[in-house]
């Protein structure tokens, strides 16, 4: 029996670049002690007060089928949060609650891409982006940014790749690079979207993790509200990764159609999860800052440690829970470096190549272990890179 090309071609064939991660997980299961700096999973769990709200809701009987668009309470809470943070008028009719940000990304692309359309995305990219576009039936087309330009996408690069495209997917603060897109960058992106009649899909799941600069939602820029779909999630802002609660924000007409899509696919998010999310969002800035604080501290530690050496380059670590380290001076690919680091020092990082060709020669470090172990691991990475660079220079 034949399977659809849509399902068999999600990853585009070949390795997905995550072999180091899977190998590290196997080593951990075999009893090895690994300093795991791979995926964006908080080292703290969901806050007890959020779990209490979840438990109370479930015990009060909110365990049946939920309203497909999301509860009025959560949609209103998300809308109010976004309006307060961005100044852009937002109501519940602009919001669909989804089972996590990944579901929101897929729904957004289904909304705007017909089979055979081109969906643009930026390289480096979060690992699921091209597969999400292919899963919606579109052709995924990457636009490479450069380390020399701090991975800020430029309007001329996007415009040059835009023939035949209907959408552009962006992510700021960015995973994997940690870069926060500047107002100049976003104005350039908006100009191309208006000029090329593109839908903009803006993944903003790291909007509470900004260490330098400011988070600007492109939905607030002139002429962009009617062509922008914003993806958000409770996963990163509130350490609720396993709860699977996210949203799409966009024009009312789009949200109405996406509610119809949800009726035929996910059929909503459990009510007790939504109640917990409503409680968490209503707790305000202090709780969000408590969740973000470990990454803010570790980012400061990393800047201090990396300033003491001259082998590794740090891509501007302006937001999110990651560092992108430039290791090209060590003479190895990111994948070769990550494998050697795991074998030699039991430290697991993600090769830059896992996130696209633009990050070759880099590794992504997740700041997701306690401060002391994180600092020790980063110092080891610096020493290892310096030794490799010295050996490479002597060849």
From TrEMBL:
Class in the EC hierarchy, top level: transferase
Residues spanning the membrane: none
EC number(s) from the headed UniProt entry: 2.6.1.1
Cofactor: pyridoxal 5'-phosphate
Keywords, alphabetical: Aminotransferase, Pyridoxal phosphate, Pyruvate, Transferase
InterPro entries noted in UniProt: Aminotransferase_I/II_large (IPR004839), AspAT/PAT-like (IPR050596), PyrdxlP-dep_Trfase (IPR015424), PyrdxlP-dep_Trfase_major (IPR015421), PyrdxlP-dep_Trfase_small (IPR015422)
Catalytic reaction list: L-aspartate + 2-oxoglutarate = oxaloacetate + L-glutamate
MF terms (GO), sorted A to Z: L-aspartate:2-oxoglutarate aminotransferase activity; pyridoxal phosphate binding
SUPFAM superfamilies: PLP-dependent transferases (SSF53383)
Presence of the UniProt keyword Transferase in the record: yes
Family recorded in the similarity comment: Belongs to the class-I pyridoxal-phosphate-dependent aminotransferase family.
Name of protein: aspartate transaminase
